[in-house]
Amino acid sequence: xxxxxxxxxxxxxxxxxxxxxxxxxxKGRCPACGSSVVLSAPDGGDEExxxxxxxxxxxxxxxxxxxxxxxxxxxxKGMDEKAVLCVNCGYNTLTGKAIAAAxxxxxxxxxxxxxxxxxxxxxxxxxxxxxxxxxxxxxASIVWIVVAWLTGxxxxxIAILIGCAAGIxxxxxxxxxxxxxxxxxxxxxxxxxFAAKVAVLEIILARKGSHVxxxxxxxxxxxxxxxxxxxxxxxxVGVGAAFRTANGSxxx
Length: 252
Hints:
By secondary structure, this protein is mostly helical.
């Protein structure tokens, strides 16, 4: 075969090979080192070559399709020529935009710091709390009245029990603690204590065989009975017990 009909190729390893002119511009592998070789235009050289090996190179180049590699416009990473989406950054070559990041799930979403949840806040009925507070305060008053009936003495310290009972009733009905519940339980305590004081005084007068009505007593002595220093202290303690029990102060 003449030089006009062949083209010469020099591999980077130094091996000079020849191939037919029809193979110009194609790629193949050097049989000596395996490097990729691009077949150049005819040069008319007379150097020795391994023509049989070059024939194999040309056939291999014709059988193996050439894959072009393009670069992502956004991250500059290589991507296939026919690829639409960059696997590195998510850039879409058709829309010219990157795919938006997925919205965070509940497990990964940041926790918003807001108002601290009060797990002791009431979730029951305030009206039921008022009713139970009155019932419990009345039950404690009856205990005070029964003790006065059995002993003939008005044991004022039992009034503290009325405050605790009123607060517990509010706590049960309201199913939690609240300032409003504490105030209402305190009011129930005051009413129950004064009602019990009236009943206890009537019982004591009856046990002594006196037929004097409560309204016939000396107003000064009657006022001292209801508002004596010790009596007032006991009322304050009872009211405080009611408020703390219903408001939850005793649990802090």
